[in-house]
Amino acid sequence: MKKIMFNDRYGLTYAVIEGRKTMTRRIVPTKTRLRRALAIIHDEPHGTEQEEYMKSARYKVGEIVAVAQKYEDVEELSYLLRDPFSETYFEEVNIGDEPGYRNKMFVKSGLMPHQIRITRIKCERLQDISDADCLKEGIRYFPEINTFYFEDIRREEGFYFDNPREAFAALIDKVSGRGTWASNPWVVAYEFELVK
């Protein structure tokens, strides 16, 4: 089983686990764009940008993917953490010694308690996102003051906007780097549902 990572600082992993985030956009890799450009230059067969970039999709419709979390954040794995004051201290397994304990890049997908199923895939420019899709991306709506927002969990602050597109533009620049929204790259958009 493959795994997928979401940003923890802006609460996106928890938004997936809570069912608030049901869509993610991943930038089409540079090598995929270069491969298509070379095919055009050398007059080789090639499809439209959408067709070519859809081929680069890491996940397929119907595929179940593990949601990566640091081992220290997964309560179900606490029984594998050795306690020097317990009678099981000399067991060979100590999840605290694993590289994935504090870095979810190194976790094993089979140990992850939450999975998603990919339900739909599309390819588009980043700025083609609809207001509805912005909300599926984890942007929250605060009806009492008619505003859209996301949070920086590390700094314990929120960012508030008049519409969901402005909020998503700011979030994608925080997650993928300043200028991402303005550069309007091709993205593969995955829609998914939480299955576990």
CATH topology of the domain at 3-69 and 107-138 and 180-194: Sulfate adenylyltransferase
Instruction: Assign the CATH class of the domain at 3-69 and 107-138 and 180-194.
Output: Alpha Beta
Strand order of the largest sheet: 1-3-4-8-2
SSE series? EHEHHEEHEEEHHE
Shape: globular
pLDDT averaged residue by residue: 86
Instruction: Let me know the number of strands.
Output: 8
Describe the structure.
By secondary structure, the protein is α+β, with helices and mostly antiparallel strands. The protein has a domain of about 110 residues: Sulfate adenylyltransferase (Roll). The protein is built from 6 helices and 8 strands. The chain has a 5-stranded mixed β-sheet. The chain has a 3-stranded antiparallel β-sheet with strand order 5-6-7, covered by helices on one side. The longest helix has 13 residues. The radius of gyration is 20 Å and the shape is globular. The mean pLDDT is about 85.
Topology, pairings included?
Layout: E1 3-4, H1 12-17, E2 23-27, H2 30-41, H3 49-55, E3 64-67, E4 115-125, H4 131-136, E5 140-142, E6 147-152, E7 157-161, H5 164-176, H6 180-183, E8 186-194
Parallel strand pairs: 1-3
Antiparallel strand pairs: 2-8, 3-4, 4-8, 5-6, 6-7
